[in-house]
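Page 47, continued from p. 46.
Same chain as before, 76 aa.
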Amino acid sequence: MPIELKLRKVGNSLGVVLPKEALAQLKVEEGQSLYLTEAPDGSYRVTGENREFNEQMRVAGDLVRRYRNALRELAK
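Result:
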C-alpha cells in the first residue's frame, strides 16, 4: 500500500516527514541513517541502516587496501 509523503521546507532545503508506520517498517529511529538507492528501472528505494552490510563493506575495503598491488596485477 503506497504511503503519500509531503515535501516540507527545512531551512534552504526540502525534507520528507515519514509516518510512524514507515519508520516501524524500516526499523529506524530518530538520528539513524536512511539510504536512498537508485534501482535499474530508474525508481528509488529507501532502506534503513544495515549494520551487517556496513561491516562487510568495511572488511572488504580493508582487504582491498591491504592487497592493492596483488589485485592490480590480477586485473592485468
